[in-house]
Amino acid sequence: MDPELEAFVPFLPHTDLSDPVTAREVFAERAAARPVPDLSDLEIEDRTVPADPDVPVRIYRPHGARGAVVWMHGGGFVFGDVETEHPWAARLAQGSGAVVVSVGYRRAPENPYPAALDDVYAVLGWLAGHAADLGIDPDRIAVGGHSAGANLAAGTALRARDQQGPAIRFQLLNEPGLDDRQDTWSQRNFTDTPWQNREKVTLAWRHYLAGRSATPYAAPAREEDLSGLPPAYLAAAEFDPLRDEIIGYALRLLRAGVPVELHQWPGTFHGSQAIMSAAVSQRQIAELCAALRRAVTD
């Protein structure tokens, strides 16, 4: 493990997904203590997207932005919201020059699949329909997220393709959870890795699916035909149960003719880019921003 990250492992907060309410409180408390970057160069606005039910979003608009990303926070489908995602959404907007629409999707287990996906898809449709009002090019809209949020981005890309929905220019998938079957080598063997382990992944899927059979929109790795999807950037952490399904999905996208950039970060664990003092974390965040900038801004 990267020594700068390893030093922080004993201080990681404990989030027990078997107790969603407490997990949310612990995560929110920890997130509130993180530094927020200087936001003077961003226009930030909270809005509500009309849907059933309405979906809260927070919009980060850099000066002169032409492209945008519908961005989803992580949290195992259970915790996280636009407040906990605030520092990261702001950094993404500043680093990429793109409008970031951070989505406050409904969370499991109170709202299992497909509630969160429906929320994200509604925001995508709203953004495409209001692109001119936001001063962005409707042909420069991406979807992206971290962990469970990246799952929702990948599922949204599949749904938009199948339903002839809004055009998506790019997928920014940071450490996505893609496969509920948990049968890869990393899923079977990483039972005690920091922050994320096999047990947590199992609980996340249990909350999200709530006993339902997984469809490809819920678990994108189950989709047999990946052709016709938008170009994608995928990032994986070395010591993460999700690692091998991410790499496998990237390879399948490539075989289906989808342009892919894949980055497997050595010495990292799931979510370790939140440890901003580590050089590798700074590189990870810079790469995410650069990938989005190349896709929708340049």
Q: What does the model show?
A:
The protein is globular. Helix 3 crosses helix 10 and helix 4 crosses helix 6. The protein is built from ten helices and eight strands. It has a single domain (3-297), classed as 3-Layer(aba) Sandwich (Rossmann fold), CATH 3.40.50. Helix content is 37%, strand content 18%. The chain is α/β, with parallel strands linked by helices. It has helices spanning 3-6, 20-32, 86-96, 115-129, 131-134, 148-162, 185-189, 198-209, 243-255, 279-297; strands spanning 42-49, 55-62, 68-72, 99-103, 141-146, 170-174, 232-239, 260-269. The protein has an eight-stranded mixed β-sheet with strand order 1-2-4-3-5-6-7-8, with helices on both faces. InterPro entries: AB_hydrolase_3 (IPR013094), AB_hydrolase_fold (IPR029058), GDXG_lipolytic_enzyme (IPR050300). Residues 69-272 form the Alpha/beta hydrolase fold-3 domain. This is Alpha/beta hydrolase. Keywords: Hydrolase.
How do the strands line up in the largest sheet? 1-2-4-3-5-6-7-8
CATH-derived architecture: 3-Layer(aba) Sandwich
Shape: globular
Tell me about the biggest sheet?
8 strands, mixed
In total, the number of domains comes to 1
DSSP helix count?
A: 10
Structural class: alpha/beta
Helix content: 25-40%
CATH class: Alpha Beta
Number of strands: 8
List the defining traits of the structure above.
37% helix, 10 helices, alpha/beta, globular, 8-stranded mixed β-sheet, Rossmann fold, 8 strands, 298 residues, 18% strand
Q: How are the SSEs ordered, and which strands pair?
A:
Elements: H1 3-6, H2 20-32, E1 42-49, E2 55-62, E3 68-72, H3 86-96, E4 99-103, H4 115-129, H5 131-134, E5 141-146, H6 148-162, E6 170-174, H7 185-189, H8 198-209, E7 232-239, H9 243-255, E8 260-269, H10 279-297
Parallel strand pairs: 3-4, 3-5, 5-6, 6-7, 7-8
Antiparallel strand pairs: 1-2, 2-4
Helix pairs in contact: 3-10, 4-6
